[in-house]
């Protein structure tokens, strides 16, 4: 296990921040920061928190830094079903419902599904049952040959959009689970095309998805609690799929209304 001194240096290197810049952000001196990283000084609890905040270290890992220095964790980790997070659960479910008829999901830091609306259930119809057995991983569900992959028209481009995002998370906040997922997704994806089409716009790359006889065009947005002080809450992400054009919007509305009219009451 790394010492807190080594771990802080690792995070600074990972963020590509100089000692001078980090010292300025955290309100300390470069000399003192150099002493910390070399092991000549052991930072106090408040300094660890200030340095971690300045480096945008996830709060789960901030707790690890504190523990490595012999301090108690500063950030609680609530059970998702606890009464403490009840208002958050209600708010998120309202967002999911309010996004209908368009798909939306809530996932954790590894992309595991925590909740989904009926719009997401609609586009998931027909995927293999084993992919829907908890924990359901959304990136795997999207790229697996028994998942959505056969219905993604631009799979050669969109798969790499998904992989790029997972790999970016790995570089920024690496975990064994994310690293393993990244390797798995690369194995599932088709070869990256030599030339990307003009529709490949980085984070705004559209998802072209066949649903029955419809060809849907969707873009995705990610939302998270940037100022959360609870580990569980900080690791939640809401991913919403939005129609790129009026044809897709009308098709999803029609299909959702049709499905709802046949749902048991």
Automatic annotation (TrEMBL):
<dbReference type="Pfam" id="PF01381">
    <property type="entry name" value="HTH_3"/>
</dbReference>
<dbReference type="Pfam" id="PF17765">
    <property type="entry name" value="MLTR_LBD"/>
</dbReference>
<dbReference type="InterPro" id="IPR001387">
    <property type="entry name" value="Cro/C1-type_HTH"/>
</dbReference>
<feature type="domain" description="HTH cro/C1-type">
    <location>
        <begin position="8"/>
        <end position="62"/>
    </location>
</feature>
<dbReference type="InterPro" id="IPR041413">
    <property type="entry name" value="MLTR_LBD"/>
</dbReference>
<protein>
    <submittedName>
        <fullName>Transcriptional regulator with XRE-family HTH domain</fullName>
    </submittedName>
</protein>
<dbReference type="InterPro" id="IPR010982">
    <property type="entry name" value="Lambda_DNA-bd_dom_sf"/>
</dbReference>
<dbReference type="GO" id="GO:0003677">
    <property type="term" value="F:DNA binding"/>
</dbReference>
């Amino acid at each position: 296990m790394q010492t807190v001194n080594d771990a802080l240096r690792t995070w600074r290197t990972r963020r590509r921040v100089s000692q001078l810049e980090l010292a300025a952000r955290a309100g300390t001196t470069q000399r003192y920061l150099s002493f910390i990283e070399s092991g000549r000084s052991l930072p106090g609890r408040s300094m660890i928190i200030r340095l971690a905040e300045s480096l945008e270290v996830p709060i789960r890992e901030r707790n690890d830094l504190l523990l490595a220095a012999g301090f108690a964790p500063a950030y609680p980790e609530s059970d998702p079903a606890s009464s403490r997070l009840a208002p958050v659960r209600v708010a998120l479910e309202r967002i999911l419902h309010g996004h209908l008829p368009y798909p939306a999901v809530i996932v954790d830091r590894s992309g595991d599904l925590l909740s989904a609306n009926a719009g997401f259930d609609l586009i998931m119809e027909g995927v293999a049952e084993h992919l829907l057995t908890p924990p359901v991983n959304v990136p795997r569900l999207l790229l697996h040959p028994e998942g959505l992959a056969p219905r993604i028209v631009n799979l050669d481009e969109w798969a790499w959009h998904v992989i790029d995002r997972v790999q970016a998370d790995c570089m920024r906040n690496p975990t064994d689970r994310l690293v393993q997922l990244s390797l798995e997704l690369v194995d599932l994806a088709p070869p990256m095309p030599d030339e990307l089409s003009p529709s490949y716009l980085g984070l705004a790359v559209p998802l072209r998805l066949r649903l029955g006889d419809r060809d849907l065009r969707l873009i995705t947005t990610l939302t998270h609690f940037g100022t959360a002080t609870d580990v569980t809450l900080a690791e939640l992400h809401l991913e919403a799929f939005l129609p790129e054009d009026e044809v897709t919007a009308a098709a999803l509305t029609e299909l959702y209304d049709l499905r709802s009219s046949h749902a048991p009451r």
